[in-house]
Amino acid sequence: RDIKGKNVMLMPNGVIKLIDFGCARRLARAGSELLRSVRGTPYWMAPEVITGSGYGRKSDIWSVGCTVFQMATGRP
């Protein structure tokens, strides 16, 4: 869960690919401490992730929005 401009690659055919899955791991059990810990780059993290409420679809959309903003303006 570390979606940011640095981890997005635009292919010559126009396809967008996510790269750098350093934070992605297979978990042995759903209640793992890793699921409850904060992972990612602070600027692109949704407020609920920072406060410890966890990850979800909404937090991914937040990160994509931050990435699109950075790509459009050239600044985070």
Number of domains: 1
The helicity comes to 25-40%
Q: Biggest sheet, open or closed, and with what strands and sense?
A: 2 strands, antiparallel
Radius of gyration over C-alpha positions, nearest whole angstrom: 13 Å
Strand order of the largest sheet: 1-2
- The end-to-end span amounts to 18 Å
Structural class: mainly alpha
- What's the total count of β strands? 2
Domain Protein kinase: 1-76
Pfam families: Pkinase (PF00069)
Protein name: M3K19 kinase
GO molecular function: ATP binding; protein serine/threonine kinase activity
Helices and strands in order, then pairings?
Elements: E1 8-10, E2 16-18, H1 33-36, H2 47-50, H3 57-73
Task: Give structural notes.
With 76 residues, the protein is mostly helical. It has one domain (1-20, 38-76). The chain contains three helices and two strands; from the N terminus they run ββααα. A two-stranded antiparallel ribbon has the order 1-2. The longest helix is centred in the last third of the chain and has 17 residues, at 57-73. The radius of gyration is 13 Å and the shape is globular. The relative contact order is 0.21. Residues 1-76 form the Protein kinase domain. InterPro entries: Kinase-like_dom_sf, Prot_kinase_dom. It comes from Regulus satrapa. Keywords: ATP-binding, Kinase, Nucleotide-binding, Serine/threonine-protein kinase, Transferase.
